[in-house]
User: Fold these one by one.
Assistant:
Number 1:
Amino acid sequence: MGNSFLISPSLFCSFLLLSSVSVDGVNSSSPFADLYHSSRALLEEVGQLVGRHRDRFTLETMRAQNKGYAAEIAVITYNRLNKLMNGDSKFRILLSFGQHGRELITSELALHLLSVLSGELGMPDLNTVSMDNVLDNVVIKIVPMENQNGRKRVEDGDACERRNGRGVDLNRNWSVDWGKKEKDYDPYEENPGIAPFSEPEAQIMRNITKLFDPHIWVTVHSGMEALFMPYDHRNGTPDGYTSKTMKSVLADLNHKHFRDRCVVGSGGGTVGYFAHGTTTDYMYDVAKVPVAFTFEIYGNSSAPATDCFRMFNPADSATFKKVISEWCTAFLTLFETAPSHLKADLGKWVSIRGNVVDGGESRAGRRKVLDGIELGMQELKTYFRLFILSSVLLMFMFCSRISRSKLIHTGSSNLS
Ligand SMILES: [Zn+2]
């Protein structure tokens, strides 16, 4: 940013909020029309912001399709030009918002965060520990609206829709423990799709991850206030070398920004149910992202179960601004603290791309092959399960056909 960060992150975000203006709303009949952008308006605003700050932002639109269903995802890369460092030597952070259609507030947070990163609002009083230094050392990729098709369904009137444009939950379509169903499984909420990565949105996100090879991943949701780390599919946190780092980063954020009121820990261990095939479990287990989080930024448990707008999104201006402000500053803290916490761990990191930060080439190459095999094995296991299931079904059909023809045969011999 041309002008430095001259104030504390908190003031910066608050100022931005005071001066932010909602454009057109979700739809004219929505109670949120005054507070929230439509998806079209939000993405247009993001595009314009990028256009005004080409020294630090680039925008790509990634597309994929599968069996007649197409999806596209806008990805914004924040990378300030810096003569001393090239992009590869910076910390890489991947953030995704709006994976679930009904969680409108998350994409609003993405837009605000991008506005802060753009530096459009210069501030007077100097804070010398500059966010400038922090932001010089990171490359941030931001997906402001992962599930554009699902979001459109919400805007068309289905306020409780969280799945994509053809009814698949994008946070159940990944390959770690894919397809397992709990007793209270509800296809309206959690349909995992016909196979891991059947959905174009998940394919695009996986590709971004492979190409970008992030050190830090955060997927942003709403429904409660929580700071989650792996695992979602079982009770407990991983034993890996970054487990301690993840725990301490989350505890710091919770204390500093949320007065310790967020639920913190593994998704599966704290939320009350296991989630299978989630993005964060894949990011940690398969993509080997050292720090992988799920943030839940807002929830209203007293809203009626049929009122999804209010369950997942602030309904008044004061709460809306408070949520955006708190989480915006929490992200700036994350950009500052997580890389410094992680530095000590990265000697042991072997990324999915095979770049060993502190190690030999050959080890990197070997590990890369192993990662590939592991990735393939996860998916093979799932396909094998499907194969066994369909074989059993075929056998059953075959046997019942034989017994039926025997009966007919016996019947006809009795007649003769
Ligand atoms: Zn969600």
Note: Residues 100, 103, 221, 223 surround zinc ion (CB under 6 Å).
Number 2:
Amino acid sequence: MTIALKIEDLHASIGAIEIIKGLDLELPFGEVHAIMGPNGSGKSTLCHALTGNPVYEVSGSAKLGGKELLDKEISERALMGLIQGFQYPTEVPGVRLAEFLIEAGAERGIERSAIEERIRVEAERFTMTDFLDRSLNDDLSGGEKKRSEIFQAAVLGPRVALLDEIDSGLDIDAVKQVAEAVEEMRSPEIGTLMITHYSRILRYLTPDRIHVMLDGRIVESGGAELAEELEDGGYDAIRDRLGIEKPAEEEAPKKPSDFFTDIPF
Ligand SMILES: Nc1ncnc2c1ncn2[C@@H]1O[C@H](COP(=O)(O)OP(=O)(O)OP(=O)(O)O)[C@@H](O)[C@H]1O
Ligand SMILES: [Mg+2]
């Protein structure tokens, strides 16, 4: 069986700061995997590095359907079927959502009539019809932006979908809707990697695997019981069980008296 996404010894850094520190992960086609990890552990960086954001210096290997991604341009990776649903979607004033999807579809060789039909059907499903003539993500509420991201993924039909905090900032009905959409997108041709902080979305969809990410690495993978362990004991429970030390806390801020005595007169 081909693996949708196979990541081996991935490193990503910005200047001297290493953020992803030798990450391995295997996502088979047809499966939905969730990554959970504390703030700053590198989850979004993982998505950016895979999609090809040039800010990061990346090494190691990441293969989509057996083909290396890391030596390809961003646009080539997209054409190979990689799509990223952003944690913070960019606003693009002046580019209508529908136009953007028609162009993106054309780039992928999808005929205009076919993409228009997909847009119509998915827009109804995600109540996005009113947004089709508005600029991409411009002046959308946080929840509307997230709904737009999953809507775009559903229209474009990726082979590997990286959904970064697609459930953050959503009201409870929207969480259910997004969870159902992820389940509906499930097919033997797609692998979905979903990043989340909340086990509430896991009430509505069952990932095949949950990965815990700490300090730039996947330290543990398992089933629903991992989400329960996190819910009960937080990341410290995982650290304790695996004998991983907590990263050093930031230096405590100096007291005001230190501030004055530190001034070199
Ligand atoms: N462009 C950048 N410049 C400097 N530091 C960066 C940059 N991008 C990421 N980092 C740092 O890398 C670390 C990981 O960030 P990242 O956004 O990947 O975390 P995350 O796991 O997605 O966190 P969150 O759960 O808060 O979204 C953080 O300490 C962040 O400040
Ligand atoms: Mg993030």
Note: The pocket of adenosine-5'-triphosphate (ligand 1) is lined by residues 14, 19, 37, 39-45, 55, 87 (CB under 6 Å).
Number 3:
Amino acid sequence: MSPASYRAAPPRVACSTLQVHRPRTKSGPRGQRLSSRRHRDAGPDGSPLAWTDVTTPPTAPSAVTAATIDEAAPRVADVASRTPLELNARLSAATGAQVWLKREDLQPVRSYKIRGAYNLIVQLDAEARGRGVVCASAGNHAQGVALACRRLGTHGRIYVPGTTPRQKRERIVTLGGADVEVIVVGDSYEDAFRAAQQDAADTGAVLVPAFDDPRTISGQGTVAPEIVEQLGHAPDLLVVPVGGGGLIAGMATWMHERHPATRVVGVEPAGAASMGAALAAGAPTPLAEVDPFVDGAAVGTAGRHTFPLVRDAGAQLMTVDEGHACTEMLRLYQSDGIIAEPAGALATAALDAGLVIEPGSTVVCVVSGGNNDISRYGEVLERSLIHQRLKHYFLVSFPQEPGALRRFLDEILGPDDDITLFDYVKRNNRETGPALIGVELASADDLSGLLERLEDSPLGVERVAPGSPLFHYLV
Ligand SMILES: Cc1ncc(COP(=O)(O)O)c(C=O)c1O
């Protein structure tokens, strides 16, 4: 057996119109550090710091109404597509309902984000447009801003965190052309947001919030009337992915006013459930930690505009595990030929994650985005297998004698168990040598048999516990 080791950190993108931002000062607005951290920011006394938009004047939540959304619709139609609403046979059969998909992944920027960005920028007067715009984005809002800038001849500076996939960064540059600059800063949306705020304060450029502005929210809300027009009636259930809450705030507000009988459910990734936390606490509350995997929806604090709109529209919130979203991404791809990014798969993933669905009812799920970097599929597959309890890792102490591996294969592995990782280093002067083994099962039911055989064998076996640091390293 020979040692096998691999794993390279993904390269940081460097391309001509893309800069990595190194802030000259360590202090952002109100003294926050512009640092690269995933956990909650704390003030000097340990209290959480709010990072919500402090440059836009406070606007009462009622600044978003069904009327502002109806007014946004013809503006948005200048640049956004009226995306198809498609009946999905797989999900309809699985739920016994009529499940329709609103294909916002088919927008020119491959997500609904163009609606809000354009609705905001097109309403700026010539003087404001002349100062240019800035935004922070995990990638999709940036593409909306980039396309809007190009259409309107406005200059844009776009701050993205280092976690933004390469595919999204490159699309921003392609869509915005010479009108935009992309600046990489920190490793969370919040880091990028603070840098954009600082830029706006320093230069006078107009900040275009990704979700927490009535004009952004009204633009995103235009998805709702479009669905009702296309369907010919309001759905019984509308399922919407949630990050900072711009999409659901707009859609739920419009539905609540125009079709209050429709139940609106927002779906957050389990590792970034900030809107659910806000509803539970009665106010936006920073999460202690955010899992950045569902990059479109990994937001640590619900918006101060979006939160009251979601609450007052009576939307319900639920979570879906990141691994479950991966399984649904793969189903969308394999069965339906739809390329969804993780956030784009949240709404349909919710259908088999405990959401109660009336048989025969009409359900609409928003497939919100399709900007998936091909290099992420390895991780998507791995997370999906783990979620389905098909992938497991073990540390096994092998006696350092000929034939030990053969006995492991013959006596412990089941007929359908597949070794996906075997990392062993022969040690001199020792009786046993440890091996790290990854096993993929054909069925989750095969796990108990494998564990029993491992337990009964003379080999020392330790299961790598899901969630442990070693497990995270492997995945
Ligand atoms: C594809 C996709 N879906 C959902 C969301 C969540 O959006 P919101 O912040 O409007 O809740 C985002 C946000 O960037 C996204 O890009």
Note: The mean pLDDT is 85.
